[in-house]
């Protein structure tokens, strides 16, 4: 195994630009590593039994990374045909456990591991062929056709680590050791006594360049002053944490924050998750084995446990103890004299799978007068992830970071023994829910400096804010709210029809979903954008929506909207929101009495496929309502997929003509089309005024 290929690819070295063969080698080694990880499962059953009830079974993660490749390549326009549409629906969206008690009850007819392995081989061949033919220019930036290739590679390296954690949480009977996954043998080395190291004040300045591939949250500018503090010389070891366990720390509520207490009381935890008590002896669960407790290794806990330890340690030391913030971790990094180039060119860290496939003693890798500033285990910080100034969403992965800007995802830094590629660089900003388990521990610091609050409580993304205002904000120039007007029109037209279930396809931020729920028993909203769905979910859960509106330039106003003021509070319990592709819906979305497709068909990559199959989702006698301004653009829909807006045999073909032709066999048009206007506010002085044609179609066969 060539561990040099586990480092990030340098994309901006003008003297030796990256070559397609380097990218090819990086791609194949990533795929080989991922396949090798899943060879630790002993049987097909191991793929289907959930390691933890909050997540999908491992068969999902085996297929997910290659589905991600296909979806991003299609979105980037680099391919036009799917490899396996069924798999690429089933394996598309993972589970971000919203809470420790948020059980995922979805049931799927999963394929066999052999079928997924064959699918992975097909995708690998497709990507390899693209590597042969794509034009390669340096540097590779956000607009480069190589960006989705790199995105897919780094995404699989993320799941290499997160899947290894799930395997570690699997029943031991489902896993097996192998020569490729050998843990550290240094088990009985005494744990060092932790001491404090002085860290001087530093000015932290971050500005991500194109030198490495990156995720959107790494880019932008950040400046902060880090006052002087003291830091533990070592990561907190199992031996050091044992004192907290033996002192009854898990039974004493005073050490646990409110959110942490909820997790503690729900799980009834009495010690770290990977610790096992056998009689008077402690064992440690590794990825594929249980071993005698290595007391010198770093303890692996979630944020709640680490914070409780720090609160307990505050009392023991008589000094304020906590974990570092993100910028204080950068101060540790600078204190150690580290750089990406230095870390990538040395083996003096338990990183990149260079040494072991487990943790190792906390005093094995020195970085100046500190140890394990990078590597061994991830380090929890006190900082909920937030956007840097100048943050922009990458158009190919709009839901990588924005759903985590909620104050509930804390940043982890430094990488673990299985952190490779982009994960292990200084600028990486991965964030997890505080109850999440990763190969993560912590280093404590002593400081009086309060924790900064960088949380972005108001939605400031321009597109999201415009849609929030379009759906829930003021009306302009006397034009009624468009989603409400559509819903009212639909309800008036359906007075003699069943009203059990409705589907709002292309629901955006969800206003029509809520409005329809005043009439229907249950309404499902689906949109391709996870950012839109996230906003709708937040409103359904919290009842309040906050966002900024651009007035002019950098001047904004702040808006607060609530379901109560819109008379929608009673509808919140009757709605659900999902991310999905209208042209490739999951099978459970069926059996509806009414389907609304508002301003959708002229934004689909295959409106013909959508129109030819939508009847499968609708009950007999149910009604499909299509609204659209018929703004056909090749940037959204290939011209051969347009259903109108062109000449054929010298004659005009309108979209209504196309709708009648495609839908005519299974639907009848209930009434003449009507036009409903809408206005979208862009700035205080700029608005879009549009007419959307509305047609109602009853399913007759």
Report on this model:
This protein is 28% helix and 20% strand. With 701 residues, the chain is an alpha+beta fold. It has 17 helices and 27 strands. Strands 16, 17, 20, 21, 22, 25, 26 and 27 form an eight-stranded mixed β-sheet that branches. A four-stranded antiparallel β-sheet has the order 1-4-15-8. The chain folds into three domains: 3-174, dinb family like domain (Four Helix Bundle (Hemerythrin (Met), subunit A), Up-down Bundle); 196-446, paralog of FGE (formylglycine-generating enzyme); 462-699, 3-Layer(aba) Sandwich (Rossmann fold), CATH 3.40.50.150. The mean pLDDT is 92.
Brief synopsis:
By secondary structure, this protein is of the alpha+beta class. Helices cover 28% and strands 20% of the residues. It is built from 17 helices and 27 strands.
Q: What descriptors fit this protein?
A:
701 residues; alpha+beta; Four Helix Bundle (Hemerythrin (Met), subunit A); paralog of FGE (formylglycine-generating enzyme); Rossmann fold; 3 domains; 8-stranded mixed sheet; 4-stranded antiparallel sheet; 17 helices; 27 strands; 28% helix
Gap between N and C termini: 58 Å
Which class do the helix and strand fractions yield?
alpha+beta
Quaternary form? single chain
Shape: globular
- The tally of helices reads 17
The fraction of residues in strands falls at 15-25%
Question: Main β-sheet: number of strands, strand sense, barrel status?
Answer: 8 strands, mixed
Determine Rg (CA atoms, Å). Answer: 27 Å
Tell me the count of domains. 3
Assign the CATH superfamily of the largest domain: paralog of FGE (formylglycine-generating enzyme)
Helix content: 25-40%
| CATH fold node name of the largest domain | paralog of FGE (formylglycine-generating enzyme)
Q: Would you identify the CATH architecture of the largest domain?
A: Alpha-Beta Complex
CATH class of the largest domain: Alpha Beta
Average of per-residue pLDDT values: 92
Task: Note poorly predicted spans.
Answer: none
Quantity of strands, as a count: 27
């Amino acid at each position: 195994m060539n561990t040099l290929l586990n480092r990030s690819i340098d994309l901006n070295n003008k003297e030796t630009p990256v070559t397609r063969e380097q990218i090819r080698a990086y791609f194949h080694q990533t795929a080989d590593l991922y396949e090798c990880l899943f060879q630790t499962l002993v049987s097909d059953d191991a793929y289907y039994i959930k390691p933890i009830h909050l997540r999908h079974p491992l068969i999902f993660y085996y297929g997910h990374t290659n589905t991600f490749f296909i979806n991003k390549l299609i979105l980037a326009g680099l391919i036009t045909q799917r490899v396996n549409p069924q798999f690429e629906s089933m394996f598309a969206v993972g589970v971000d456990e919203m809470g420790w008690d948020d059980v995922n009850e979805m049931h799927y007819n999963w394929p066999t591991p052999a079928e997924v392995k064959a699918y992975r081989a097909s995708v690998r061949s497709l990507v390899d062929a693209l590597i042969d033919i794509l034009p390669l220019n340096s540097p590779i930036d956000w607009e480069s056709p190589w960006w989705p290739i790199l995105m897919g590679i780094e995404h699989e390296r993320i799941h290499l680590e997160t899947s290894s954690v799930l395997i570690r949480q699997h029943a031991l009977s489902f896993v097996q050791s192998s020569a490729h996954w050998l843990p550290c043998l240094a088990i009985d080395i005494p744990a060092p006594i932790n001491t404090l190291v002085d860290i001087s004040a530093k000015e932290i300045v971050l500005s991500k360049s194109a030198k490495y591939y990156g995720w959107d949250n790494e880019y932008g500018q950040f400046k902060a002053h880090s006052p002087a503090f003291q830091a533990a010389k070592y990561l907190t070891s199992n031996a050091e944490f044992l004192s907290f366990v033996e002192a009854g720390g898990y039974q004493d509520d005073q050490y646990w924050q409110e959110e942490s207490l909820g997790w503690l009381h729900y799980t009834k935890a009495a010690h770290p998750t990977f610790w096992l008590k056998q009689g008077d002896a402690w064992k440690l669960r590794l990825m594929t084995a249980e071993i005698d407790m290595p007391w010198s290794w770093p303890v692996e806990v979630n944020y709640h446990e680490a914070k409780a330890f720090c609160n307990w340690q505050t009392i023991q030391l008589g000094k304020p103890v906590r974990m570092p913030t993100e910028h204080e971790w950068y101060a540790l990094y600078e204190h150690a004299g580290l750089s990406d180039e230095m870390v990538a060119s040395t083996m003096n860290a338990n990183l990149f799978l260079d040494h072991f496939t487990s943790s190792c003693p906390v005093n094995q890798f020195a970085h100046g007068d500190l140890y394990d500033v990078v590597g061994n285990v991830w380090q929890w910080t006190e900082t909920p992830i937030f956007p840097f100034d100048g943050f922009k969403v990458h158009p190919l992965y709009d839901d990588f970071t924005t759903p985590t800007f909620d104050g509930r995802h804390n940043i982890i830094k430094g990488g673990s023994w299985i952190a490779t590629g982009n994960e292990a660089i200084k600028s990486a900003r991965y964030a997890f829910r505080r109850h999440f388990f990763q190969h993560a521990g912590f280093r404590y610091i002593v400081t009086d400096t309060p924790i900064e609050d960088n949380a972005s409580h108001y939605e400031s993304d321009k597109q999201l804010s415009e849609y929030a205002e379009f759906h829930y904000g003021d009306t302009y120039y006397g034009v009624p709210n468009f989603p409400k007007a559509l819903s009212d029109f639909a309800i008036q037209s359906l007075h003699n029809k069943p009203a059990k279930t409705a589907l709002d396809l292309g629901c955006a931020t969800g206003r029509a979903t809520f409005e329809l729920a005043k009439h229907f028993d249950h309404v499902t909203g689906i949109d391709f954008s996870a950012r839109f769905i996230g906003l709708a979910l937040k409103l359904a859960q919290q009842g309040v929506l906050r966002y900024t509106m651009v007035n002019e330039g950098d001047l904004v106003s702040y808006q607060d909207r609530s379901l109560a003021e819109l008379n929608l509070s009673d509808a919140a319990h009757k709605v659900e929101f999902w991310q999905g592709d209208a042209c490739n819906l999951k099978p459970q979305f069926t059996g509806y009495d009414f389907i609304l497709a508002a301003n959708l068909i002229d934004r689909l990559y295959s409106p013909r496929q959508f129109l030819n199959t939508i009847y499968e989702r609708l009950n007999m006698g149910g009604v499909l309502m299509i609204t659209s301004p018929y703004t056909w653009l090749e940037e959204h829909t290939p011209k051969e997929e347009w259903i109108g807006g062109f000449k054929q045999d010298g004659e005009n073909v309108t979209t209504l003509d196309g709708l009648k032709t495609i839908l005519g066999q299974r639907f009848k048009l209930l009434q003449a089309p009507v036009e409903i206007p809408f206005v979208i506010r862009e700035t205080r002085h700029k608005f879009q005024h549009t007419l959307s044609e509305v047609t109602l179609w009853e399913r007759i066969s």
